[in-house]
Automatic annotation (TrEMBL):
GO biological process: fatty acid beta-oxidation
Family as reported in the entry's similarity comment: Belongs to the enoyl-CoA hydratase/isomerase family.
Keyword terms of this UniProt record: Isomerase, Lyase
UniProt name for this protein: Enoyl-CoA hydratase/isomerase family protein
Gene3D superfamilies hit by this protein: 2-enoyl-CoA Hydratase, Chain A, domain 1, Lyase 2-enoyl-coa Hydratase, Chain A, domain 2
Alphabetized GO MF terms: hydro-lyase activity; isomerase activity
Domain of life: Bacteria
Pfam families linked to this entry: ECH_1
Record-linked InterPro entries: ClpP/crotonase-like_dom_sf (IPR029045), Enoyl-CoA_hyd/isom_CS (IPR018376), Enoyl-CoA_hydra/iso (IPR001753), Enoyl-CoA_hydra_C (IPR014748)
Organism in which the protein naturally occurs: Maribrevibacterium harenarium
């Protein structure tokens, strides 16, 4: 267990950690302090020996994250807003580039900066009470933590335009239909669902998982030919590590592979 301001980190099982944004009275809204805590928490996790999957969620039963903190933003100057957006962007990039999968457990409102935070995770599991939205335009601003870019890449331009320009919320079933989230379950089952994904990931080669994550995320911004060249290079690189020997030997000897973190 490690505590940061308005954020908790807890090891749930070997290799599986849960990061909980803990400002339930403000529906876990992201202010500068929470964003800095997220950066500190992921830097701290990177120093630990046994991190194979991270679950990211919000405290309380009502919200994952209801957005960037409107009270904190209300009086910002353009310069302060730029710095705030840059800090948010840094958090999203840190999660996206973290060498271990990060899974969003969306347990309620997932709005604005909260939706952008979930979109920076590797995939999204949602409770059937969750709702998603990018309501920024009703506040007189466009999204500022990457929503116009990641949402369009994940659900496509048409759904992104519809969500962002209307600002309307969609429920978990609709989020699943447009592939904004990967799976929906009852609220009481959400953590267990996250753990089941975490356990499957944790049983695999951490090196191969990290390489595959990097290839998929970087490939989103590359043309197919260059992305495939990068895959060839990282595929070849994986043959220089112990995990490839262990994984293939275990298969051929009909035993389970045991991968240790290098
Ligand atoms: N920022 C700051 N405080 C917030 C907040 C936010 N984004 N969302 C909720 N809160 C606070 C409320 O002010 C309230 O505080 P008080 O009890 O001190 O009054 C508390 O959380 C509970 O909220 P509500 O009373 O409003 O709860 P509700 O059940 O009636 O409504 C809600 C829930 C629909 C989520 C509503 O709170 C809401 O619409 N929140 C704002 C959602 C939003 O617009 N998010 C986008 C923010 S902008 C952004 O994110 C920019 C960006 O991309 C970087």
């Amino acid at each position: 267990m490690a505590s940061f301001t308005d954020l908790q980190l807890e090891q749930l099982e070997p290799g599986i950690w849960c990061c909980t944004i803990d400002r339930p009275k403000a529906l876990n809204a992201l202010n500068g302090t929470v964003l800095s805590s997220l950066l500190e928490a992921f830097a701290w996790l990177q120093q630990q020996d046994d991190v194979r999957a991270v679950l990211l969620t919000g405290a309380g039963e009502k919200a994952f994250v209801a957005g960037a903190d409107i009270a904190a933003m209300q009086t910002m100057t353009p310069l302060q807003a730029r710095e705030f957006s840059q800090l948010g962007m840094q958090v999203m990039a840190t999660i996206e580039q973290f060498p271990v999968p990060v899974i969003a457990l969306v347990n309620g409102y997932c709005l604005g900066g909260g939706c952008e935070l979930a979109l920076s995770c590797d995939f999204i599991l949602a409770s059937d009470t969750a709702s998603f939205g990018q309501p920024e335009v009703a506040l007189g601003i466009p999204p500022g933590f990457g929503g116009t870019q990641r949402l369009a890449r994940i659900v496509g331009k048409n759904h992104a335009l519809s969500m962002i320009l209307t600002g309307e919320r969609i429920n978990a079933a609709e989020a699943l239909r447009i592939q904004l989230c990967n799976q929906v379950t009852e609220p009481s089952q959400l953590l267990e669902l996250g753990l089941s994904y975490g356990r499957k990931i944790a049983a695999n080669s951490p090196t191969a998982v990290a390489l595959a994550k990097e290839l998929i995320h970087k490939g989103q911004n590359l043309d197919l030919q260059y992305g495939c060249q990068m895959e060839t290079e990282l595929f070849a690189l994986s043959f220089s590590g112990a995990d490839q020997t262990e994984g293939m030997t275990a298969f051929l000897k009909r035993r389970s592979a045991t991968f240790s973190l290098s």
